[in-house]
Amino acid sequence: MPFVLPKLPFGLDELEPVISKEIMDVHYNKHHAAYCNNLNKALDELKQAEAKNDLDKILSSQSTISFNGGGFVNHSLFWENLLPKAKGGGVLQEGELKKKIIEEYGSVEKCIELLTSISVAVQGSGWGWLGLCGKGSHLHITSSQNHKSPHGLKPLLCIDVWEHAYYLQYKNLRADYVKNIWSVINWKVVEDRLLAAN
Ligand code: MN3
Prior knowledge:
Helix Hairpins; globular; 3 strands; minor pseudopilin epsh fold; alpha+beta; binds manganese (III) ion; 2 domains; single chain
C-alpha cells in the first residue's frame, strides 16, 4: 500500500500570523506531498531493483527512501504538534508533561529556551527535537540534519527549521520564526506522545 499524505489537522491559514497561509500551502501541498510521492516511487524502484538483483539501484533507492521517508514522517509529526492559537495553541496545561519538564529543566521557559537555541543553531537544513531517551525515559533536546530522525530518541515535539518552513515570511530570520512558533505548539499532543511512550 502506498503512503498517503495525512490530512492537515488545521486550515492552511489558521496558524497565521505565526506561519503564513502561503508558507503552509507550499510546505504542505508541495514539499510534504513531494516527500510522500517520492517515497512511494523509490519503494517501487527498490522492489524492481531487488527483483533484478541490481545492487547499484538498490543502494541508490535506499538513500532516496531514507531522505523522503524521513521527510514524510517528520512533517507528519510536525503538523500534529502544531495548533492554531485560537484553538489553544501554545498553552501547556498542568499535567504529566509539565511536571516532567520542570523536574528535568527547572522550568518550562528553560526547556523552551534550550530547544529554541538548538533549533536556531542547526547548520543548513534540519530539525529541532524534544524526545525521550534511555530506560529512565529522560527528556532530551537535540537536533538532526536534513530529514534524519533523532537517533535513539522517541520524538515528542519537533520543529522544522528548513528554510522552506519560514523563508517566504521571515527571510533569513530563523530565530524570529522559532521564537514565534511557541504560540502555536500543541502541547496536548506532546503530552499524549509522552503518555503513550510510558
Ligand atoms: Mn519542511
